[in-house]
Amino acid sequence: MRKILIVGAGQSGLQLALGLQSQGYEVTLMSNRTPDEIRSGRVMSTQCMFHTALQHERELGINFWESQAPRIEGLGISVAAPDATRAVDWVGRLEGYAQSVDQRVKMAGWMETFAQRGGQLVIHGAAVSDLDYFSRTYDLVLVAAGKGELVSMFARDAARSPYGEPQRALAVAYVHGLGPRPEHPEFDAVRCNLVPGVGELFIMPTYTLSGRADILFWEGVPGGPLDVFQGVKDPAEHLSLTLELMERFLPWEYARTSGVELTDAGGTLAGRYAPTVRNPVGRLPGGGLVLGVADVVVANDPITGQGSNSASKCAAAYLASITEHGDRPFDEAWMRQTFDRYWETARHVTKWTNAMLGAPPEHVLNLIGAAGQIPAVADRFVNGFNDPADFENFFYDPEKTAAYLASASATPA
Q1: Radius of gyration, alpha carbons of the chain
Q2: DSSP readout, 36-96?
Q3: Euclidean distance between CA atoms 338 and 98, whole angstroms
Q4: Residues forming beta bridges with residue 188, ordered by sequence position
Q5: Dihedral angle, C-alpha 213, 192, 110, 15, nearest 10 °
Q6: Per-residue pLDDT tens over the stretch 219-235
Q7: Does the pTM of the predicted model rise above 0.90?
């Protein structure tokens, strides 16, 4: 059977490795950390995964934590007024529930499963020189490590990357003890709080090393009042800053925090990166080719919560392309076709995410406002998080938005 090397053990690399393994491929997976090192390290992301992405895991039988993770049945939008009251506040219902599982739990567990099933797990931080050697011994080399030296092999696609700098400063805290939102205590929901010109706070239920928890996730406009986490090393200080900003900008969310504490010493994360689309094919010094995976080639800002969803969808698309290709060579033409297959999904995510990073135009404000009055509008908007392609039909074009709102207003509830 064909030999495939996957470098990087995140959502996409591991999902793809387990999928190929189940199809009988000889798979080697390289990770720069052991499962135990991942479990004892810092949180890596917020990873709220919606129905389609979760379904890819179910199809491979690797949805090991589905019964333990909270079922996220809705997504709410609040907009803060200048006096820190709520100008807009509503929640839409998801057609299929979402879930968040701490990647320390999931990636460590998946790595151990891969090894138990006979996969070759290599704990080693790969360099370009390593891949130069491996490209001659494997039928296909996939790069799924989204940070570090390897990413430099994939040139930025300027036509698809409108931003050259980070558009948000990111700060995450995993906490226990957050009180429920009184508006919908009967079901779990992600809450997205928009502070115009300042940034966003996302609150989402998750499953972590110590069980049920909640994630407090600030996205701050660089240079603004939320951009204060760079250089903060102490987790307690990070949490204190998170709460101070909630009290200042979002007092209705701060009211829920009187009993919060960090889940563990690794429960905070801060950073920033520029949203970037890259050329999917990397050329090694010796002439070999490697194919980039997920956020190596399409890295969107997390403002729309699409990172792990896109990683899952990329792994599913690549798995299908590899298995359908049979014994033919994995040449550059195949690599580009494989990426194009994924881009058919990813392009909608990139367009929507980049739009959400800017100041919303009037028709989008009208849409968000109408969702507070018309539940069908709220529901359609939040289900776009599962299928961002639908935003083409009612989000970007003012005339389409107006026509949709007129139709929704005329339709009986």
Answers
A1: 21
A2: HHHHTS------EE-HHHHHHHHHHT--TTTTTS--EEEEEEEEE-TTSSEEEEEEEEEEE
A3: 27
A4: 72
A5: 170
A6: 999 999 999 999 999 99
A7: yes
